[in-house]
Amino acid sequence: MPQKQYGAATVNVDDEGFLTDLSQWTREVATAIAKEEGIADLTPAHWKVLEFMQKEFKENGTAPSIRKLNKSGVVSTKELYDLFPGGPAKKAAKIAGLKKPEGCV
Amino acid sequence: MEDRIKKVSIVVSKGGLDGIYPGLIMANGARMEGIEANLFFTFFGMDAIIKKRMGKIKIATVGNPGMHMPSLLGILPGFSAFATWKMSKTMDKLDIPPIPEFIEMIADAGGKFYACKATVDMFGLKKEDFCPQVDSIINVGKFYEISAGGEIIFT
């Protein structure tokens, strides 16, 4: 299984760099992945989305859809695209340490 | 990764749920991948962006071989409404939104909506008849101009 080094942390990842074990996730790891994805700073608005996604993932085993994020009141679709430009659901899942979303919407 | 798709322009030409959804799903999916997306609605596909029609689009139960049932059943009163209701329930579970919400979601994601001038003229429509997400009414030439440098998908 591929591994990646983020600062002091070593994490297990899949072929596309998504963490395979959420328990290895830390805020430092998230910050480092975000940098790789072109997000220089994770703001409180980012963290709010990431924490909600992790909560949903723990409850349902999958990352929430964009629609669900919007309906939950955590982040509007517009804001989500602004926070994670160029592929919000995928990027946010990656930074949150979740597996790649599989749904079509 | 260098030759990844950067832009898609999707023509939605068919009406009914099964005519409209594929184009919307592809446009939304494009935006989710960071791909620029334009939607061009023509002929009966235009129902998707007409204010008084967009919320009432049904699945055709007559003459639709995809329904896997005799057309005789499909002509029963209320059957199309029933099939639409069943399908909408399943789609909602899969987080595929109803058409008006889907259009709003794609617009919020940065997708662009255009109506076909020829169809607008043919059906005697005006800009006010369309949902606010529609950018403008354009002719085919303008559509090609907007699509330049990207892929065109016809549905």
Keywords:
heterodimer, A: 105 residues, mainly alpha, two-stranded antiparallel ribbon, B: 155 residues, five-stranded parallel β-sheet, 6 helices
The total domain count of chain A is 1
CATH topology of chain B: Hypothetical Protein Ychn, Chain: A
Helix content, binned percent of chain A: 40-55%
Class from helix and strand fractions of chain B? alpha/beta
Total number of β-strand segments of chain A? 2
CATH class membership of chain B: Alpha Beta
Task: Report mean pLDDT of chain B, rounded to a whole number.
Answer: 94
Could you characterize the architecture of this molecule?
The complex is a heterodimer of chains A (105) and B (155). By secondary structure, chain A is mostly helical. Chain A has 5 helices and 2 strands. Chain A has one domain (3-95). Chain A has helices at residues 27-36, 44-60, 66-71, 77-83, 88-95; strands spanning 3-6, 9-12. Chain A has a two-stranded antiparallel sheet with strand order 1-2. In chain A, a hairpin with a 2-residue loop joins strand 1 and strand 2 (9-12). Chain A is globular, with a radius of gyration of 13 Å. The relative contact order of chain A is 0.19. The model of chain A has no long low-confidence stretch (mean pLDDT 94). Chain B is of the alpha/beta class. Chain B has a single domain (7-60, 96-154), classed as Hypothetical Protein Ychn, Chain: A, CATH 3.40.1260.10. In chain B, 39% of the residues lie in helices and 17% in strands. In chain B, helix 5 (117-123) links the parallel strand 3 (112-116) and strand 4 (134-138). Chain B starts with 6 loop residues before the first strand and ends with a strand. The model of chain B has no long low-confidence stretch (mean pLDDT 94). Classes of the chains: A mainly alpha (105), B alpha/beta (155). The A-B interface holds A 65-68, 70, 76-78, 81, 85-90, 103-105 and B 25, 28-29, 31-34, 94-97, 101, 105, 108-110.
